[in-house]
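Deviation from plan, reported transparently: flavin-adenine dinucleotide complex.
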Amino acid sequence: MLKKKVIRRLEKIVGRENCSTCQADLVCYSYDAVNKRFLPDAVVFPANGAEISAVIDLANKEQFPVIPRGGGTGFSGGSLAVRGGVVLVTTRLNRIIALDTENLTAIVEPGVICGDFQEEVEKRGLYYPPDPSSLAFSTLGGNAAECAGGPHGLKYGVTRDYITGLEVVLPTGEIMKTGVQTMKGVVGYDLTRLIVGSEGTLAIITKIYLRLLPKPESSVTIMAVFCSMRSSAETVASIIRDKIVPSKLEFLDQESIRCVETYRDLNLPKDTAALLLIELDGDISSVEKQAERVVEICRKGGAFLVNRAHTAVEADRLWEIRRAISPSLLQLNPTKINEDIVVPRSKIPDILDRIENIRTRYQLKIATFGHAGDGNIHVNLMVDDAVPGEIEKADKAVGEIFEEVLKLGGTISGEHGIGITKAPYISMELSEAEIALMRKIKRIFDPNDILNPGKVFYDSPR
Ligand SMILES: Cc1cc2nc3c(=O)[nH]c(=O)nc-3n(C[C@H](O)[C@H](O)[C@H](O)COP(=O)(O)OP(=O)(O)OC[C@H]3O[C@@H](n4cnc5c(N)ncnc54)[C@H](O)[C@@H]3O)c2cc1C
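Because the crystal trials were delayed, the predicted structure below was used instead.
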């Protein structure tokens, strides 16, 4: 509980209307996209870096946690007040400060919604590729803090690849700029890269310096349906072996296809094993050539149904399959435990076989889909937490899935971060020396442990 005088000081810093201790607001900011809830003591909505710095100064004096929060769509509990304290929401810092069409750069505040930014950029014939499926709600600050990725990752990389510099408020209150506003820069250690993906534990991002690309001239979408997961995976390998790098290459397993079809009635064959959605982009003539080639490779690879969209509306209809997956899975059970493992692309069939084995042994409902192109698979354990022991069973299954992922040379999180949900598992992937060094870095940045404490290294049971 924060003392009354602390609340008054917070109100003074951000303005009374931008500080709340009302129960309804506290509940609204007590959860994100994971099935957990922690009530903060207060929520503040600062307007700029100076106000954030003043909140942090107060936190250091009065020793309370500050938890940065953007859109609250995180999949690992990163914005939750696990030790109480003040949730600091960045949504009022929502300006696109500059969009430089000559140098292909932009400066934005962290509360800008990713999809809104993409629209503004595209109006100018430019392109910002990072495309988390949450782009309609998640903020660029949250994307930077989690190093969000999406289907475009295979060809264009992830959020980190577009950030050249940052302005941040450190957990000690100083406002600092990192990195560059140019295309290149190697002066000193790369603090920008350290802070990007640090899940709001090292600094609060108040400005982001981005690089942009010219917008591709055209794109084509193709759907291919297979009787076996292995032949779909081999087709993915053949496409890339043919030196074609699709802008998106997504797959759905049988359970996901079934759920989508029941939910949306899109005319998909329900009992089939795998479905690929492929997007190619670039200049018109090369996209056409590549599309013909991809259709041929899919047919040769065993696809019994290949559909190519000829208009934007048809393409959008195909992508509706991908968009429908998340909501459709709730038919299976009310609670989703969503892991985002990554394995080397060639190991996708192996990990899917192993997940199937775990699913059968634990008698769980598991649907997998994801980015076939970069090996990032979303494994969704659909559980009913009203059934005694179901969550514990799912937790054990997750541990086994991670073991298999690591044996295949993969990683336990490709884009959702560690937060609280994966914290108990990080020692499976990182060595003691790595964790010790990371803890030291955290202490240097944040000697009083006031910024988003209890995340990443938290080692109590899930
Ligand atoms: C339906 C759905 C689909 C999703 N799809 C994807 C996907 O395809 N790819 C993907 O990568 N993720 C995906 N996610 C996860 C989530 O959307 C991303 O992690 C996103 O980047 C979070 O942004 P946010 O603004 O909601 O951040 P929040 O959830 O508010 O915060 C996330 C983390 O960032 C920190 N943070 C937020 N703002 C700042 C700041 N200004 N400075 C420092 N730290 C900050 C928080 O403390 C927290 O640790 C999805 C989530 C949902 C619900």
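DSSP finds 15 helices and 18 strands in the chain. We consider this an acceptable substitute for the interim report.
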